[in-house]
Amino acid sequence: MNKELEHSFVEQLQKHQNIVHKVCRLYTNNADAHNDLFQEITIQLWRAYPKFRGDAKFSTWMYRVGLNTAITLYRKSKRRINTQAFDTVQFKIKAEDYDDTEEQQLKLLYQAVHQLNDIEKALVFLYLEDKDYREISATLGITEVNARVKMNRVKKKLKTILNP
Amino acid sequence: MDELELLKKDWKKATTEYKNYSDADIYPMLHKKSSSIVRTLYYISLAELGFWILISTLPYLFKSKFNEQMAESYKDPWFTTLSVLSFVIIFVFVYLLYASHKAISVTDNAKKLMEKILRTRKVIKYYVIYNLVMIFISIPFSLYLEYNQNMVFHDQIDAFNTKQMFVLYASVTLLTGVCLLLFWLFYKLLYGILLKRLNRNYNELKKLEV
């Protein structure tokens, strides 16, 4: 494979890797699974890269490939058993803005999001990334109206999980 | 405040807290093997295709007596036509499988991508069904041919009383049933496990349309 292509790909992925990490954060529960999914998304991105045209933004293109991998292609490995909750390990809120109620609330929120199904997580992900309904519908292959309807249902579902 | 807004605030803040892979970390990742469902499906398809082609050609390779019979059979224009047809059908399936696999693109939208994966799975499913049907048609058909051409066999069957005929029919039916059940279970299990998540997600998107 073309070394130049490889180089430009790695450079761009390195720069935008947070997008991949964020997908992994929503779809996995522990560090091992996170790394596995990161690896798989990287492979899928790299395979699709020769067809990537500059007319789309690299980051936008990454959203699509990343989510597709998480939703359709990735097979959770059987070896992985949830050993430790990822959120508590890697995302400790720093001491200076420590706020017991907000921290507690966020922890519950992340737990609630993890209980959503794969499609609902995708909607939440795109929402958190400030994507509009046009882009959400284009990424998932549903109409804008349905994307809105679904998003409202997800919000309701989150409320029910948080306040049963 | 809206729960999701609170989450969004934290989500944006959290960007710096992920592990930062360097270029040197990423390079080796590019050359690792994918564990994607498409890849697994692809290998299973190839194995199934290979299995059935082997099943249909194995008798030619080993049994010389069978070969002699085949040479005799090929004089029958019907038989020759059917054989050519069955090879054409194999090639059609190979082509369909190749084309549907090629069409899978990770940059499609999620729904389309899932549809294409499921289509690949369908091609191989139809191929298996085709083979099973052919086998179950050919068993009674060859018995019938044998009955017409092989006089010894003909006389044996004719000498059967009603009870023996019943046993013959019952055992053929039972055998067919058990074989079908085993195949069905095997495929349910294989694809059920493999595509459970994909099917669930696809149905979730489909559900929105009604």
From TrEMBL, chain A:
Query: From its record, what is one biological process in GO terms?
Result: DNA-templated transcription initiation
Q: Supply the SUPFAM superfamilies for this chain.
A: Sigma2 domain of RNA polymerase sigma factors (SSF88946), Sigma3 and sigma4 domains of RNA polymerase sigma factors (SSF88659)
Q: Name one GO molecular function term.
A: DNA binding
Any Pfam family hit: Sigma70_r2
Ranges of residues in domain RNA polymerase sigma-70 region: 14-80
Ranges that cross the membrane: none
Q: Which UniProt keywords apply?
A: Sigma factor, Transcription, Transcription regulation
Domain (RNA polymerase sigma factor 70 region 4 type): residue spans on this chain: 108-158
Cite the InterPro entries for this sequence: RNA_pol_sigma-70-like, RNA_pol_sigma-70_dom, RNA_pol_sigma70_r2, RNA_pol_sigma70_r4_t2, RNA_pol_sigma_r2, RNA_pol_sigma_r3/r4-like, WH-like_DNA-bd_sf
User: Do the record's keywords include Transcription regulation?
Assistant: yes
What family classification does the UniProt entry report for this protein?
Belongs to the sigma-70 factor family. ECF subfamily.
What is the protein named?
RNA polymerase sigma-70 factor (ECF subfamily)
Q: Which organism is it from?
A: Winogradskyella epiphytica
TrEMBL record, chain B:
**Record-annotated membrane-spanning stretches:** 41-62, 82-104, 124-145, 165-187
**Entry keywords, A to Z:** Membrane, Transmembrane, Transmembrane helix
Its protein name is Uncharacterized protein
